[in-house]
Amino acid sequence: WYCICIYRLCFFLLPGLGFCYSIINGPTNVTVLAGSEARFNCTVSVGWVILIWLSNGNPVLTVISSQGAVETSDRFTSQNYTSSNGFTSELIIHNTQLSDSGKIECSTQQPSESSFAFLSVQVNGSLFIKNSTLTVKENKTVEIVCEALGWAPAPDITWMTNDSFIDKSRYVTQQSQGSNGLHNALSILTLTPTDTEILTCLADIEALPSPQNATLTVIFVNSTI
């Protein structure tokens, strides 16, 4: 009494024995902000016995068909869903940290099979312009500095004046490595105002629903006044 699994298909040589099963749908890539939850799903066909979740090669949670989830850390929990097509294990990583970034793997035993995805944990740092207002006289050129500290990865910096984006040729952005795997960015905008305007510095990373911003009001003073 035995069966042979070939390319995820099960052929029963004699009826009534055992199960062959496989991973139907593996996890997909996830990008989140540090401190939030990350969720991964793994669906296996009927007949599964043991499912193991690994983070960067280290087992973090085991699910046994006859027992349920075996959780060894409050940061790694699961929810389970059963349907006629198979069983889905959802791995939930709580309070994600930068060090959690990397390979998340769903692995089965008897037979051994695995499927993996990648977790990217990003850090939303600080962003500021030193002054909230700046008075500039006619025909005077000034440099406006916007500083982003403690980001991962380094943010993409753009500038706006009122409601319009400023051409990238008018500012220079430098990036540097900070501490604990974080990044800093310094953007300098060169400006010769002809009118009072509101400048906005925007910093963006993939995990942010919208860019973080810092603003400065440039007050234009006509030299004839």
Please, what is the average pLDDT?
Answer: 89
Number of strands: 21
The general outline is rod-shaped
* CATH domain class name of the largest domain: Mainly Beta
Task: Tell me the number of structural domains.
Answer: 2
> Could you give the distance between the termini?
99 Å
- Estimated helix fraction: under 10%
Q: Order of strands side by side in the largest beta sheet?
A: 4-12-11-6-7-8
Strand residues, percent: over 45%
CATH architecture of the largest domain: Sandwich
Q: Mind telling me the C-alpha Rg?
A: 27 Å
Largest beta-sheet characterization: 6 strands, mixed
Structural class: mainly beta
CATH topology of the largest domain: Immunoglobulin-like
What does this structure look like?
By secondary structure, the protein is mainly beta. It folds into two domains: 23-122, Immunoglobulins (Immunoglobulin-like), CATH 2.60.40.10; 126-221, Sandwich (Immunoglobulin-like), CATH 2.60.40.10. The strands form five sheets. Strands 4-12-11-6-7-8 form a six-stranded mixed sheet, with no helix packed on it. Strands 14-21-20-16-17 form a five-stranded mixed sheet, with no helix packed on it. It has a four-stranded antiparallel sheet with strand order 3-5-10-9, with no helix packed on it. 24% of the residues are buried. Helices cover 0% and strands 60% of the residues. Residues 15-110, 111-217 form the Ig-like domain.
Characterize this entry briefly.
The protein has 225 residues and is an all-beta fold. It is built from no helices and 21 strands.
Features:
single chain; 225 residues; mainly beta; Immunoglobulin-like; 2 domains; six-stranded mixed beta sheet; five-stranded mixed beta sheet; 21 strands; rod-shaped; disordered N terminus
